[in-house]
């Protein structure tokens, strides 16, 4: 039976994954959490992993709690601990479910160790797509996307392309382009001014999906689709010109592959992350993860709408970043993370997020590094820190 490591076990991807684990009865090898350590403790009691990762300053306290509960679990701390867990072959599959750039090093470590990685942490591919994909190839790692759109595309591709993404260009497969679908978020039918005046409560709620707060804000600005466009370029070895975006407010079709003969293959399900996660957990077989069937007769009409690029400028910013180079993608991601957290703290407006990312992408001094590629994570993380500092300066300007 597949033993699992779940990094980011206390988050929304962690919840969906562990729900399947409960349903199927899979063994859990390791878990990690950052905040909400009470929840992580309960998960340790329930799943009895061999190892657990917590923030470095919480190792002793957490180890003490486990000991008092008679649980013999190895506790590791900080990013080094996460990298250790990610590369540990005690697990057959590693779920990369940490949010944001904090997931980069552990994702890379899992790939470096040749693991099978169920990838939710899209930010690591945005920051280091080339490095992750080339390391995976060299070290024999398998990347199975669990971001729902990328999982849908993966399911609609021929097996030979699933096994080797360089095969996507072979003419006999006839792959013309990919269609990423987007819900359009909660402001799809609202005016720009309503988006500008959005409250934090509005921006952390989503019409179809129940997710962590950062990705929910990203969905509402459509930066999530921008990040996913870059994620898709790396996962499927295509340029952004071969990837189109369609708003599909019902979130039933999770993405599509268009073939040269005029066929478009789509994957449909209810908007429930347990579907892509169960697919990746069972892959190459299928597994019942406990999700209800999609009820075709109760479904409303399926709509497709062209995104409004003026209201959702994140889409063009992401296209600009992937065309410019890895450095620009690092900058897009870092400035977005900093701006989203400023919005969540009530310091800026929702529409300031994309405006701030745009200002950072226009910054001449940082821009000298935007066309760069990186063959190790240190350079990426150094640029990430510089961009964060500069974004803070721009955010202070907004508040003056
Ligand atoms: P979340 O906020 O619900 O959970 C994040 C997890 O990461 C938590 O376990 C948290 O403890 C951990 N974490 C946060 N900061 C950390 C740090 N500095 N160091 C170590 N761990 C840290 O987020 P989520 O919605 O589960 O999203 C996780 C990832 O999956 C994101 O990259 C997101 O884009 C992607 N994703 C999520 C969904 C979804 O349905 N939630 C869908 C597709 C993709
Ligand atoms: Mg997605």
Largest sheet: 7 strands, parallel
Distance between the termini: 58 Å
CATH class of the largest domain: Alpha Beta
| Ligands bound to this protein structure | nicotinamide-adenine-dinucleotide, magnesium ion
Q: Identify the strand order in the major beta sheet.
A: 4-3-2-1-5-6-7
What is the CATH superfamily label of the largest domain?
NAD(P)-binding Rossmann-like Domain
Q: What is the CATH-assigned architecture of the largest domain?
A: 3-Layer(aba) Sandwich
Q: Count the strands? A: 11
Percent range for β-strand residues = 5-15%
- CATH topology category name of the largest domain: Rossmann fold
- Indicate the mean pLDDT: 97
* Count of all domains: 3
- Gyration radius (Cα, Å) is 20 Å
How would you describe the shape?
globular
Instruction: List SSEs in N-to-C order.
Output: EHEHEHEHEHEHEHHEHHHHEEEHHHHHH
Count of helix runs: 18
Protein name: 1-deoxy-D-xylulose 5-phosphate reductoisomerase
Cofactor: Mg(2+); Mn(2+)
GO molecular function: 1-deoxy-D-xylulose-5-phosphate reductoisomerase activity; isomerase activity; manganese ion binding; NADPH binding
Binding site for NADPH: 10-13, 121, 123, 212
Give a description of the structure.
Its cofactor is Mg(2+); Mn(2+). Its EC number is 1.1.1.267. Belongs to the DXR family. It is an enzyme of class 1 (oxidoreductase). Helix 15 runs antiparallel to helix 16. With 400 residues, the chain is of the alpha/beta class. The N and C termini lie far apart (58 Å). It is globular and about 55 Å long. The chain is built from 18 helices and 11 strands. Strand 2, helix 2 and strand 3 form a beta-alpha-beta unit. The protein has 3 domains: 142 residues, Rossmann fold (3-Layer(aba) Sandwich); 104 residues, no CATH class; 74 residues, RNA polymerase sigma factor, region 2, helix turn helix motif (Rna Polymerase Sigma Factor, Chain: A), CATH 1.10.1740.10. The structure holds nicotinamide-adenine-dinucleotide and magnesium ion.
